[in-house]
Amino acid sequence: MFRLSILSFLTLSASAAVPDHQRQARPIVTLTRIIRMALLLFAVFLVVCFVSLMMGPGNVDPLWLIKRILSLRQGAGAGIDVPENTILFSIRLPRILFAGIVGASLATAGVIFQSLLRNPLADPYILGISGGAAVGAIIGIMIGAGAVPFGISGLAFLGALVTIILVFGVSGTRTDIQTNTLLLTGVIINAFFSAVILFLVSTSSDDHLHSVIFWLMGDLSFAEGGEVLFTGFFLMAGFLVMILHARSLNLIVTGEETAMQLGVDVEKTKKILFTTASMVTAVAVSMSGTIGFVGLMIPHLLRLILGPDHRLLLPASVLFGASFLVAADTIARTVMAPVELPVGVVTALCGAPYFIYLLRRRAV
């Protein structure tokens, strides 16, 4: 939570203007280019998932795994021992899918926040959503809500939802959205929740402390069918809303006055996209814990490579964000096996140097 508060403060202090190099002419985005890029990134995602499925305390031979997958597709389950079937398709595969969905959610939300705030250093937690979710999750851990299905994640989602209501309510965005006021409100509320988290952690018992720390640093080890379906549903619904507003978002980023002259309802579009990105973030963080740098690093990296057109940037962020978090989670659960690291440790090790690079690059 300290990192999130510092990141929010630095983000607020950074220039709100999009760098000039991002405004340079890019290749025209066509449907063919979008499909080709999506197919390429989807192929990368499949390769990463296949490698992740092989890796673990007991590594699996690639040819053996391919034969087993083909036998399952053909409806022939013979030759698959129950332990192997359980490890591969009941434990590893749901976790891989869950990591992909969470990574896609955070990356997509990061695209929206960076674009609407016109700041490449914005991330999905900039409005303090992670702080509210963390408070709800810690309370759930301390009262033993984990014994109830969706107990901890449900309280975390409730905390994130309360944060969203507070941020938009306190910032007074009923008529229009003032990004500076919204940012300040998010930073203040996040600082308040950080203090609450410190109080809860300092008063929690040793039995709960390990679970609390793992949740605060991101934990995908309890991925089950319910979490995968719930998070996936919100990702699909949120992505549909975002991609339908991709053209309007392009115009808003270019200039709000220009967008209004071209018939875009700027304030309505901003409210819809802010709310959608916040809800997608709330669901992801409530199910997986706080996983930093995914929503900061992936959108900015893809924007540098593919350009600022959100018709291409949004689907690319979904697929590449999913691949990145699957790879990070694979490293987290295998690099020190049988001990498992929180996935947030791996993403921080990747994201912190990149964050420093961004700051130095903007200072040049």
List the helices and strands and how they pair.
Blueprint: H1 2-13, H2 31-54, H3 62-73, H4 82-116, H5 129-142, H6 151-170, H7 179-203, H8 206-216, H9 225-244, H10 246-254, H11 256-261, H12 266-288, H13 294-306, H14 310-334, H15 343-363
Summary keywords:
15 helices; ABC transporter involved in vitamin B12 uptake, BtuC; 364 residues; globular; 74% helix; mainly alpha; disordered N terminus
Describe this entry's structure for a reader.
74% of the residues lie in helices and 0% in strands. The protein is built from 15 helices and no strands. The chain has a single domain, classed as ABC transporter involved in vitamin B12 uptake, BtuC (Orthogonal Bundle), CATH 1.10.3470. α4 packs parallel to α9. By secondary structure, the protein is mainly alpha-helical. It starts with a helix and ends with a helix.
What's this model, at a glance?
Helix content is 74%, strand content 0%. It has 364 residues and is mainly alpha-helical.
Question: For this structure, what is the CATH homologous superfamily?
Answer: ABC transporter involved in vitamin B12 uptake, BtuC
Q: What overall geometry do the principal axes of the alpha carbons give?
A: globular
Cα-based radius of gyration, to the nearest Å: 21 Å
Secondary-structure class:
mainly alpha
Secondary structure tally, helices: 15
CATH class category label: Mainly Alpha
Order of secondary-structure elements: HHHHHHHHHHHHHHH
Which spans have pLDDT < 50 for at least 5 consecutive residues?
Answer: 1-25
As for the number of domains, it is 1
Give average pLDDT, whole number. 84
Share of helix, binned: over 70%
Between the first and last Cα atoms, what is the distance in angstroms? 29 Å
Q: Based on the structure given, which CATH architecture is correct?
A: Orthogonal Bundle
Largest sheet, in brief, is: none
Please report which band the strand proportion falls in: under 5%, 5-15%, 15-25%, 25-35%, 35-45% or over 45%: under 5%
By CATH, the topology is ABC transporter involved in vitamin B12 uptake, BtuC
Number of strands: 0
